[in-house]
Design goal:
By secondary structure, the protein is mostly helical. The chain has 2 domains: 3-91, Orthogonal Bundle (Hypothetical Protein Yqey, Chain: A, domain1), CATH 1.10.1510; 100-150, Orthogonal Bundle (Arc Repressor Mutant, subunit A). It is built from 7 helices and no strands. The termini are far apart.
Length: 151
């Protein structure tokens, strides 16, 4: 099953269960997915692949984390709680993430594979990591690990 199908089925399930907050969040995800599909039309017209959907979902999670932080700073805990609840729903569609030890092992393997020795070769290591681990790797978290390893 594709990620797109999972999202659609989750919407149906949440609607049947009467879970208004979850339904609202999933509808928001589907609207963003439709926008992403429309933006991809000039590139070929096919619906975006799962890898792009995962990137879109991660972007949505990042936006909500930033918004929740701002709401906390602005003393609006009820709005921050809403953002955090949306994060929980969205993260349910993301593939499992590597833990810290697995990420460090993956970085070590990619550095050894590419033969990189300096920070100038970081791009090759990042490309190798993305090719080998794809969606299971959060590129925002792995970047600093690669940089520290090559410094």
């Amino acid at each position: 099953m594709t990620l797109r199908t999972d999202i659609t089925e989750a919407l149906k399930t949440s609607m049947r269960a009467g879970d208004a907050a979850r339904t609202s969040t999933i509808r928001m995800v589907m609207a963003k997915l439709k926008d992403t599909d429309i933006a991809a039309r000039p590139r070929g017209g096919d619906p975006v692949p799962d890898a792009e959907i995962v990137a879109m979902l991660r972007s949505m999670v990042k936006q909500r984390r930033e918004a929740a932080e701002l709401y906390e700073q602005g003393r609006r805990p009820e709005l921050a709680a809403k953002e955090l609840a949306e994060i929980t729903v969205i993260e349910g569609f993301l593939p499992g993430q590597m833990d810290e030890a697995a990420m460090r092992a993956a970085v070590d393997a990619a550095v050894a594979e590419t033969g990189a020795t300096t920070a100038r070769e970081m791009g090759r290591v990042m490309a190798a990591l993305k090719a080998a681990h794809g969606a299971a790797l959060d590129m925002g978290r792995i970047g600093p690990l690669v940089k520290a390893r090559l410094s």
